[in-house]
Amino acid sequence: MSDALQIALGALEGLLSSSVFVLALFIGFCMLFGLTKLVKTAGNGAVVKSLDETITHKSMVYLTPGAPRGPADQLRSPELLEAAAARK
Q: For the chain, percent helix, then strand, then coil, each to nearest 5?
């Protein structure tokens, strides 16, 4: 019985150690190459975020969460405003 237990524990240890290794390798790869996307490129970097940034050589300026989105602002639709008023 002890031999079967040792074999099972050895197999479990091998499976867990290889899983941890592959997971650490994957997370490390994603972190290393994912951080390059956060750098402002302004058209001259190796990462092309948008065609506009490549052509104009200016970094993109993104809207703030509270900025109006034009005539069809989905965050301020009549249905959502009525539902918010009904909750109050």
A: 65, 0, 35
- Cβ(54)–Cβ(60) under 8 Å? no
Cα–Cα distance measured from residue 35 to residue 9, given in angstroms and rounded to the nearest whole number: 38
The span from the CA of 15 to the CA of 1, in Å, is 21
**How far apart, in whole angstroms, are the C-alpha atoms of residue 41 and residue 30?**
19
Single out the residue of 52, 51, 54 nearest to residue 43, CA to CA.
54
Residues sharing a CB contact under 8 Å with residue 25, sequence separation 6 or more, in sequence order = none
User: Residue 7 pLDDT more than 90?
Assistant: yes
Confidence of residue 20 (pLDDT cuts 50, 70, 90): very high
Length of the chain: 88
